[in-house]
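How a chain folds remains the central question behind the approach discussed here. For one protein, we set the task of working out the structure tokens from the amino acid sequence alone. The sequence in question and its structure tokens are set out directly beneath this paragraph.

_____
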Amino acid sequence: MSMPPHFPASAYQHEHSQPAADPARLLLEQVEENNLREMWDMVLMLDYEVANVYELDRETQEEFCSIITLLLKAFTK
């Protein structure tokens, strides 16, 4: 019985794992496609007092994305 070739554990990727979706990044792409980046930045700066969405905790990021999604729908109709 032969030994299998050496396989480093760090190279193993679980068969069910998937890269985590980044809803903020995907939403930002939609915002930029519609030329609404200034709105994105304004909401971040005035309402959340941060310059980058990743400075927010996860729950606040979700809240921000929900607001931007509603604004995006309103401005693109």
